[in-house]
Amino acid sequence: MSVDFFNGATENHHNTEAVGLKERYDLIARILNAKTINEGLEEYQQILNNEFLEFASGVDSLKEKEIALLTLQEIQKELQLVVSYPSLFQKTIVAVGGGFSTGKSTFLNNLLGLKLKLPEDMNPTTAIPTYCLKGKKEVLMGFSQNGGMVELPHLAFDHKFLDSLGFNLKEIMPSMLLSAPSVPFEFLCFIDTPGFNPANQGYTGGDKEASKESLKHAKHILWLISCERGGIESDDLEFLQELYEEEGKQVFIVLSRADRRAKS
């Protein structure tokens, strides 16, 4: 008997607590089996796994080997995205970043008119970077680490759900894509990124790295700062300074949660 993830009302994400063990295994199996067939990508992977390692064995500097390998692995990830969803790179990519609970997901839900909403909460929620763009139908897709794509159930893939799986889902599904006909911007793609500074541990860690990697893919960055906090915090300034020095990205500051700030 197959599991029907998509039956019933799915305007909002289903309650992850109701997801049984079989459904979880089925989800993980489909992600692991999602692969793409592309000769160019396969050739690149073979060169990286074989010829590069053989070449690197003749290099004395361990640091140079590490830098080169990380750079080539980053290129591999981008190639996988290009192969899996080519139209993604025909759009201008805008990343929405900031600290945890600054309202990034709420901002995108309202800006893009999403019915299948990104998970919102006062606690850290966004665990996996999500590309949001205009599409013919409203659907949530996952990019597997093998370069394939799989249609996902309408669940909240937040920190709570990742914790419940007992392993780091981001290792096999590093990013997701949410398309919707309601998105008013045909030539823009937005990335909902994890908060760069949540105090979480275990299987949901690595948010800063995931956020930084997503921001690298963007041409422009919208950086949200909550009015509830009264100003720009030192963590924001340090992260933005680091991002600017390494990538030279253009950053626009957006003040969020103004309605929760008492009038003075």
Automatic annotation (TrEMBL):
Record domain Dynamin N-terminal: where: 94-256
Keyword hit for Nucleotide-binding: yes
GO cellular component, one term: membrane
Lineage: superkingdom: Bacteria
GO molecular function, one term: GTP binding
Keyword terms of this UniProt record: GTP-binding, Hydrolase, Membrane, Nucleotide-binding
Protein name: Dynamin N-terminal domain-containing protein
